[in-house]
Amino acid sequence: MYKIAKENLSALFQTIAETKELYLPVKISGQVNFAAWDEEAEVSLETLKTVKSPKDAFFPQSETLYTCKKEGKKITIDPEALKEKEFVVFGMKACDVKGLEVLDKVFLSDPVDTYYAARREHGIIVAMACHEPEESCFCKVFGVDCAEPAADVSVWMVEGTLYWKAGTEKGEALTKSVESLLSPVEEEKKDGLAAGISELEKLELEKQKIRGIVEQLPYTQLSLEGWGKEENLDEKFNSPKWEELYHPCLACGTCTFVCPTCQCYDIKDYDTGHGIKRYRCWDSCMYSDFTMMAHGNNRTSQMQRFRQRFMHKLMYFPVNNDGMFSCVGCGRCVEKCPASLNIVKVIKAMGGDQ
Predict the structure, then answer these.
(1) What digits encode the pLDDT tens for the residues 301-350?
(2) Cα separations (Å) of 343 from 143, 226, 264, 327?
(3) Please, is 322 exposed, middle or buried when counting C-beta atoms within 10 Å of its C-beta (0-12, 13-18, 19+)?
(4) Which one, of 249, 242, 240, 232, lies nearest residue 284 by Cα?
(5) The whole model's pTM is what?
């Protein structure tokens, strides 16, 4: 394990960016989201949750798939190049890393999405533990330990020092490339530390503190009883409670766009004047024109669309993916829904967890 002082992080970022693309939480116009690093970037590692999840480093909000051109009677199709350069996503939280595991189930299953697969192959994740989880967080409900994120590199910020631990071959290679900026963590007590504890013990105390906060959060004891089981599909689907729950829904799609596990997209064509670009962009199951076909839409009411979102995350996905829920408890929908509708409210109302 290694460490680096907080004031030296700019040098660390500079070194990483010399050979790799680097993305991390950056404050732009008062909001913090993951963005490409440069020397002028206002980095905000202290932000617990970015507005959007960092999933678009691997599944972009919009990306070109291929370009078509016509010259005379000849038509050429040029697929977009796959990601070939390594990049680092620095500061992802444990819930967002778990979100990528959900996306892996979708995009890396046959037929494999080659665009996503190339980014996963070349992406290196540096995940940061949550120093102070917030009231909207409920990641523990879905088996996430925000005190010990599992990634290529795991890091913790404790009293002005960033502790660094490689967890994979990718992480070891990244560590080696910045090793000159890192210092080994002393396992024995050194002068200047609190009496009687080593730096490793100090880090363990930080993890215990984080987990202690999690235990006090209002949604940590949320029960998933009855969810994710095939035998309960009809009961959940036909419950009259959907009619009561959906009414405040504005169909704005905010929940789907901030969610780290939503994977729906649309494919469109755009005439550039020099050819046609086919691109895909995020879409939302909450929209009335989602999956619209020639004969219309299979889900004709907002209640049906509202039900689809939560049935997919809590029933359809786990039933078809060995019990893995398509929610990681990040709490973004809890914070951002303008009508105060969110997955916690649905779980409580439908599962009897009051």
Answers:
(1) 889 999 999 999 999 999 999 999 999 999 999 999 999 888 999 999 98
(2) 16, 15, 18, 9
(3) exposed
(4) 249
(5) 0.91
User: Tokens in use for 248?
Assistant: 């405040």
Q: How far is Cα 3 from Cα 131, in angstroms, rounded to an integer? A: 16
Peptide bond into 111 cis (omega under 30): yes
Residue 73 structure tokens: 């009677």
Distance from C-alpha of 333 to C-alpha of 253, rounded to nearest angstrom: 10
Which sign does the torsion angle of CA 49, 51, 56, 57 carry? negative
Sheet-wide strand order for 276-282: 74-79, 62-71, 276-282, 265-271
Beta strands 276-282 and 123-128, pairing class: unpaired
In 3D space, the residue among 309, 304, 300 whose CA is nearest the CA of residue 341 turns out to be 309
- Residues 122, 43, 137, 284, CA torsion sign: negative
**Please, what is the end-to-end C-alpha distance for the chain in angstroms?**
43
Amino acid at 310: F
